[in-house]
Amino acid sequence: MSDPNSLTDELHEPVGRALGRIPQGLFIMTAAYEDRRAGMLASWVQQSSFEPPMVSVALGKGRPIMPLISDSHQFGLCQLSKKDKVILRKFASKNPPGEDPFLGFDLVEDTVTGVPVLADAMCYLECQMTTHLDIEGDHDLFIARVVGGGFNTGEPQVHLRENGFTY
């Protein structure tokens, strides 16, 4: 009997291609706690409630930003526009330990939560974490109430993957 949690070989490719076609925005997820700050590229972001406004974000287990979110219970989401190539390149790669990834970038000064917010982002959300779930997969799910935000201008960068089993 096959494992009900895994796909058969003949379904792996078509399911992977179908999953990859789910459109995703590109965001820089940010967090800060005490004197540490972190940012990373995140694409598995979804609105999950109207009232109160809430979002969900799936993060690969062991990402360096996770302890900062767990300690502070808050994070920011800075949505990238199609023109934000420099920001995309900076946060798509891993930063050396101890390096502040926001050096050289303008940040929004007056934020509700104090999380780093990139001033050049198309828009941003400040989020207060309500739930952190280990969903027994290779990612954890963070659910948060939106407590602040702002909108600049731009057309959002949308990402489609060739294969839904890899970034």
List keywords for this structure.
about 170 residues, alpha+beta, Pnp Oxidase, Chain A, 7-stranded antiparallel sheet, two-stranded antiparallel ribbon, 3 helices, 9 strands, about 15% helix
Give the helix proportion (percent range).
Answer: 10-25%
Number of strands: 9
Order of helices and strands: HEEEEEHEHEEE
Work out the helix count.
3
Which CATH class applies here? Mainly Beta
Global Rg: 17 Å
Kindly estimate the percentage of residues that lie in beta strands according to DSSP: 35-45%
How is the biggest beta sheet arranged?
A: 7 strands, antiparallel
CATH superfamily placement? Electron Transport, Fmn-binding Protein, Chain A
- By CATH, the architecture is named Roll
Q: If you had to describe this structure to a student in words, what would you say it looks like?
A:
This protein has about 170 residues and is of the alpha+beta class. It has one domain: Pnp Oxidase, Chain A, CATH 2.30.110.10. It is about 15% helix and about 35% strand. The strands form two sheets. Strands 3-2-6-7-8-5-4 form a seven-stranded antiparallel beta sheet, with helices on both faces. Strands 1-9 form a two-stranded antiparallel ribbon. The longest helix is centred in the N-terminal third of the chain and has 12 residues. It is globular.
